[in-house]
Amino acid sequence: MKKKGSKKEKKIFFKVYMWTISYLYQYRWKFALFVISGIVLTLVNLAVPKLFQRLIDDIIPQKNVSALLWLLAMFAILIVSFFTFTVLRQWMQRHIQEKAGIDLQLSLFHHLRKLGFSHYEKTPTGYTLSMFHTEVAAVQQMYSNLFPSMLERSVTVIISSILLFSINVKLSLIIIPCILLYFVGGPYFSKKWGVWNKEALHLRRETGKKLYDSISALIEVRAYGRVDWDLKRLIQSQSDYHRALLKQYVFSYLRGAMRTLSANIGTLVLFIASAIFIQQGSLTIGDFVAFSLYFFIVMDTLISLIGLLTQQSVVISQAELLYRFLAIEPEVKEVDKPHWLQEVKGAITFDRVSFGYNGQSDVIQHFNLDVQPGEKVAFVGSSGNGKSTLLKLVSRFYDTTSGEIRLDGMPISQLSFAQLRGSIGFVFQETYLFGGTIMDNIRFGKPEATGEEIIAAAKSAFAHHFIMEFPQGYQTEVGERGVKLSGGQKQRIAIARMFMKDPQIILLDEATSALDSTSEQEVMRSLDALLEGRTTIAVAHRLSTVQHFDKIVLVEQGQPAEVGRYEQLMEQQGAFYQLVRGRLSEGVVG
């Protein structure tokens, strides 16, 4: 069983490894030049011991001045070559690292957009941010250092070993066990280092998530008096992370100690054996110097190569998170050849629509409703009956389990996301404002809009007056998530954005439920101007805000229990009438 699991793990490792380096394919010629530059630098370094060997054995004893000048010329060429290819390699390294890293990030961003609303609801923001910050940065090391260095060091070990044997076969055979001595404990320590490095990275990611939550929930933490509780969570998370980090360092030091031990033993054996061979006349002083330099190069490079392989295994384990993320299939997919409506009129039909989250029991059950172009429809009812879910289904944030929703007679599943969502304006209970100026936030509805268009939209949303009360007017910075504005002001900015977008369909998800009565009146005045002539579906908590709507739908257990105008439903004295009486007694409707 373990062997099967091991084979499966190796297969996945290979797949992830090939996927990771596949981002280099677009830059293969530049990457090849990058690797060639590294190999040239390696050859330059390997040429130096041979020149020393020639200097010691031939030039100095014979006092050959012309050969010395030739040797100095060779040194000069090597120095120029080293400088040239070092600059070229560093430039290529930075270029490839950034380009391939950007391509990887764009792949993740595009896929994140494809996964859509359902993924956002299930995945913490802190986890996604950590993935971009930690895993992507780790994979960039593969492009800039780990993968090319592995190739270069492999070439170095092979050529250096050949040069060792070319100098003296017997001495090489004696030294090989000393080189292999590192493998007694070195790989084990490297493996344990990799395990704790992986654990440290995981705990670092968890700490990042907690830190994000702590900063995001700062107001709630203080309001509930849970500062100490939040601090303990962070301290515990940091403590776990540093404990793993400490163990990682311990095995790193043990690995280094093993490297030093094997190098020192090898040096001792080398000196003793070389002294014997020099006395016997089978080894010259120049051979000894060159052999010693190559020995240290092989030792250092081989140990470095093992470390690189260990680091790559850690990076690939991180890259596997990205690989698996990109393998997630979107729950809502766009058809290959979407239909395009010549004109969106705004007729919406719910035809026997059923839906449940994550395969659970249906929140919406056989829902039927016709909404005419320009009609204003309100969904009302107690919480948990599927009102907001219906709005998500209209926007195709989720697909129906059965039945279908049609826009102007065409199933929305056959329309492109661009046309469907381009025709819909969504005003949420909590408006998200970007950390820029008021003008930038309104322009979000139409990126190419002029300043005059933005001001006109703000006036239509009854936002121009309060905007001009700020010293910087439309250039006022709203702060993160619009923290410098009141709830009513943020909602009117959102409505101004809708005027800029000019959609045919407006979806309101309890857009005024979080506002006080004064702010609600201001926002309702803006909404009345926005909804004029547009198909509107609103989820309403305060029934007084939808009394003038064309149609009110009481949603109970995912079905339309009652449908009609406000006056009609009140006259029937059915479930809606009882709901209004209950809300009146609670002081919600006034």
Number of strands: 10
And the CATH topology of one domain?
A: ABC transporter transmembrane region fold
Number of helices: 18
Helical residues, percent = 55-70%
Keywords: ATP-binding, Membrane, Nucleotide-binding, Transmembrane, Transmembrane helix
Main location: membrane
Subcellular location: Cell membrane
GO molecular function, one term: ATP binding
Account of the 3D structure:
- This protein is α/β, with parallel strands linked by helices and 590 residues long.
- The model is unreliable at 1-5 and 585-590 (pLDDT under 50).
- Among the domains are: 10-327, Up-down Bundle (ABC transporter transmembrane region fold); 427-502, 3-Layer(aba) Sandwich (Rossmann fold).
- It contains 18 helices and 10 strands.
- The chain starts with a helix and ends with a helix.
- Helices cover 66% and strands 9% of the residues.
- Strand 1 (348-355) and strand 2 form a beta hairpin.
- A 6-stranded mixed β-sheet has the order 6-7-8-3-9-10, sandwiched between helices. The chain has a 4-stranded antiparallel β-sheet with strand order 2-1-4-5, with helices on one face.
- Helix 4 (125-167) runs antiparallel to helix 5 (169-180).
